[in-house]
Amino acid sequence: MASSIYNTRETELKAFDETKTGVKGLIDSGITQVPRIFINPQIDPQQALISSANAQLEFPLLDLEGVSDDPIKRNAVVDAVREASETWGFFQVINHGIPEAVLEDMIDGVRRFFGQDDEERKKWYTRDLKKSRVAYNSNFDLYTAPSANWRDTVFCKMAPNLPQPEELPAVCSDIMIEYTKQVLKLGRSLFQLLSEALGLKADHLVDMKCADGVAMLMHYYPKCPQPELTLGASKHADSDFLTVLLTDQVRGLQVLYQNQWVDVPFVPGALVVNIGDLLQLVTNDRFVSADHRVLVNSSSSRVSVACFFRNATTRSTELYWPIEELVSEDDPPRYRATTLEEYITHVRSKGLDGTSALSQFRV
């Protein structure tokens, strides 16, 4: 019996994948019920529908204005970065230096891509990241995760080697390149603040090449006829050093904090920053890579742009393990050394199954 259910699921996944139009294609076709492959058994329907009951919790918001030239301000921000990275694993930044017009155009660029007709989008549809710098598809882990997420994504390796405009979708190529340049500058500043928050020299994490590579993920979460049955992104932590996230004003992102799901508030002009698994590994659990998820809704679609800081050359033999200055006799290394390739391969093979990818690398 179990194998026939599996075969049916496999057939349904394949049929969905072969449309090459993703979840948006389902909505465009006029469906009124969520297909079985998207039904997430881990959702508590009540919990998914209730907005955060923890409104009194203050989500960390950091103002970066003057952080480069005012030592007093810098010390205060470093303290706030340390506190947020050790407890929440998440914070928001304002006055980060990226012009609001660039942020708005980036959000518009994602909407322009997904607003194209099916045939234009299909040109970019692939699951083979080796052959293509740009991969548009629905669910990188479609065939391995317990349930599919209500989300389509364009994935692109943007740095260290910036693509040529002709390598990217024409409707958003210029803004993808401009936004990446701006995020790379911000990323460098953030890694310096994080290094200082760890008691290290400002360039420590930059010198480890944490700030070199950027993968851009442009996510589109269509409106959903039965939002209580599925998720835009199931519970997971990010497979990178650091994520810089830009979202539109539609809420949906939640962080698991003190065993409760907490809404990330929308702050105009702010960017959401979160610690990734690889930074938790190299900081020997000093900083936490928090679980998070995305809810969907029945009234509007949502878009976001996640920039993953991790070296894009996954075949690199570079080994990562806990930073020497952060381990001691009393606090020995908690992780074994790993390459980015080994780590990413593990993440892709297990998919977003609700478990931590880091547990595989614990000593």
From TrEMBL:
GO terms for biological process: coumarin biosynthetic process; response to molecule of fungal origin. Keywords: Iron, Metal-binding, Oxidoreductase, Vitamin C. Signal peptide: none annotated. It comes from the Eukaryota. Residues 212-312 form the Fe2OG dioxygenase domain. Pfam families: 2OG-FeII_Oxy (PF03171), DIOX_N (PF14226). One of its GO terms (molecular function) is metal ion binding. InterPro entries: DIOX_N, IPNS-like_FE2OG_OXY, IPNS-like_sf, Oxoglu/Fe-dep_dioxygenase_dom. PANTHER family: 1-AMINOCYCLOPROPANE-1-CARBOXYLATE OXIDASE HOMOLOG 1, OXIDOREDUCTASE, 2OG-FE II OXYGENASE FAMILY PROTEIN. Belongs to the iron/ascorbate-dependent oxidoreductase family. This is Fe2OG dioxygenase domain-containing protein. It comes from Salvia splendens.
